[in-house]
Amino acid sequence: NENILVYKKPIGVVAGIIPWNFPVFILARKVATALMTGCTVVIKPSQHTPNTTMEFTRIVDEMAEVPAGIYNVVTGAGSEIGNALASHKDVHMVTMTGSITAGTKVMEAAAQNITKVNLELGGKAPAIVTENADLDLAAEEITTSRLANNGQACTNAERVYVHESVAEELTRKLKEKFEAQTFGDPRKDKEADLGPLVNQDRLETVDEMVQNAVSSGAKVVTGGEAADVAAGFFYKPTILTDVTHESDIMTDEIFGPVLPISTFSTLDEAIEKANDTVYGLSSSVYTEDLNEAMRVINEMKFGETYVNRENFEAVQGYHAGMRQSGLGGTDGKYGVEDFLVTQVVYMQYKENKK
Fold first, then answer.
1. Active-site residue, 120 included
2. Most buried one in 32, 210, 257, 297, CB count within 10 A?
3. Known catalytic residue at 269
């Protein structure tokens, strides 16, 4: 004599903290999901890229006819505005894309009110290339993945583990593709492959990581220095070989157009090295052997594994990491679930006895 009803309701006020590397894509992803689930949203853009958010806001205000108070923007430094939003008693969820350090601060602030957090906190994506891989395909897709947005993406292929029998050939193919890349101002040159890094600090950090790797024994196959471009923070697409698995450039997120390569002799070794990281966002494997592909898929500790393709998610999938790459996820029906709360109703009724 009882029916159980399960309701899905909007979680409430959502605070969205946006990174600088995809200031429109990630903004739209967070805003759209909040609004389609019936939530209101407060957006905090990166202090490095506020203008795109303000232009998006102008369009919403002038064209979307969204009632006042539904979509809101607050600008400022993450250490001040982000923490204030995360700790506010009237915020019911914080969704943030950024670094582990920033995510830790958001979690600490949100803990004051036991506020739900949804975090994407970067990655160190391994690409495993077996002796059974299509090397032309692997070189093409790894180049695309590594150099997308100039290497400034959480899902970029950040390190390569290639079987020792095909390492020389793969490196040669990658070198040709890296050296064919062109630089330019994307506002003026639509054919340019690479634009600048976000700022001078990022340029210096990328170069410091490369030089540290070289001083530790890594070999520069191509690149290895800032590009000679008149204006902007450009860095040459760089390939490093003879890189040890323990090297900082194999363990720390680079966020620049630099690809370190290491070799392996067995698939067990490759999987072990790929999983040996605090991150767990994206990964990839290149092989024509289905058995190898399935082994990697089943044993990788990453939220996403791409087989014979570059690392970029589809909106109908589910973009989520494991371990220190975050909590919860976005996209698809599972991403929508994160913006909802569940209410269960137990409804008893009397029997109609005649």
1. yes
2. 257
3. no
